[in-house]
UniProtKB/TrEMBL annotation:
Keyword DNA-binding: no
Compositionally skewed regions (Pro residues) per UniProt: 37-52, 94-109
Highest taxon above the source species: Bacteria
Keyword Cell cycle: no
Organism: Micromonospora purpureochromogenes
Keyword terms of this UniProt record: Cell membrane, Membrane, Transmembrane, Transmembrane helix
Official protein name in the record: RDD family membrane protein YckC
Pfam families (alphabetical): DUF2510, RDD
Length: 312
């Protein structure tokens, strides 16, 4: 494939453009949103020659080594041989032609390890969230129970009349009786109390430890992307509010429940950090903690093809 010379987006750095001369990239890059000059870039200045030094001072910086090296015959040793990457500013820096995919990590790239800890799995996160929902539900039974009972009495008449007609095969077209006048107010009170209980249960523990009871059971933890330190009240509130505040919108034909489902499922489609929408807003990531009695610092993953050896 032959590509005409011109200014193209650099596959290695999509925010810049470089001049492709038909064989390789030359010249300095320019920002992609800046109009490039007409024609090729001006030639780069030649590097300054090495200063001569006295024999006692040793070889000058940048001088080409000569003589036998590692058993090879004497003579100049080229600084960049066949297959080696050209240095910055060389005539033809390595890289694919414009329009070609840039070489990526061979095979599947290793998963990130924020602060040296592996990412928590989706299953562990789901189980931890279900445990927390169960606890919040029990709190609502205790605190919200009376309001829920009153709300059930208010909305009972239309449901009872509907089932009476179904069982009696009554084909009457008369409208069903309306719900009680207080049903709307009771629903608002129930949702406000439920939201407050969820906030009181989750935010303080997440702010201090990055864990709720469910996360402690599953040995996972939410940490800041920037540093492994307590989230703090502000960040924990932002993280919770994205998922918890839509509870108030359950009043609007279940819109809040739909938003919460989208938030929970979003982690399945985020790569590579598996962040749900509430994680992205608070800039947090959920990691898996080491097992009790195991090493306190996880082993370094073998992310490279060749392990570094001893320096001779």
């Amino acid at each position: 494939m032959s590509v005409e010379p011109g200014w193209y987006v650099d596959p290695a750095e999509p925010t810049t453009r470089r001049w492709w001369d038909g064989e390789g990239w030359i010249g300095a890059p320019v920002p992609v949103d800046v109009t490039p000059p007409e024609g090729p870039p001006p030639p780069e200045p030649a590097p300054e020659p090495a200063r001569p030094t006295s024999p006692a001072a040793g070889p000058a910086t940048g001088a080409v080594p000569t003589g036998p090296v590692g058993g090879h015959p004497s003579g100049p040793v080229p600084p960049y041989g066949a297959g080696q990457v050209h240095p910055p500013g060389a005539g033809h820096p390595q890289g694919p032609p414009p329009g070609w995919p840039y070489p990526t990590w061979p095979g599947r790239p290793p998963e990130p390890r924020p602060h040296g800890l592996p990412l928590a799995g989706y299953g562990a996160r789901l189980i931890a969230r279900l445990i927390d929902f169960g606890i919040v539900l029990l709190l609502n039974v205790v605190v919200n129970g009376w309001f829920i009972w009153r709300f059930a009495l208010e909305i009972a008449p239309p449901f009872e009349e509907y089932w009476r007609r179904v069982n009696a095969r009554d084909l009457s077209t008369e409208p069903l009786p309306a719900a009680g006048a207080q049903s709307g107010s009771l629903l608002v009170v129930i949702l406000v109390i439920a939201t407050a209980l969820w906030f009181a249960y989750e935010v303080p523990s997440m702010a201090a430890r990055g864990q709720t009871f469910g996360k402690r059971v599953m040995r996972i933890k939410a940490v800041s992307v920037e540093a492994d330190q307590p989230l703090g009240f502000g960040r924990a509130t932002r993280r919770w509010s994205t998922l918890g505040m839509p509870t108030l919108l359950w009043y609007c034909c279940g819109l809040g429940l739909l938003l919460q489902l989208v938030d929970v499922v979003s982690a399945l489609f985020d790569h590579p950090l598996r962040q749900a929408l509430h994680d992205k807003r608070a800039q947090t990531v959920v990691v898996r903690l080491p097992q009790p009695g195991g090493p306190t610092t996880p082993a370094t993953p073998h992310d490279r093809a060749d392990s570094p050896g001893d320096t001779p």
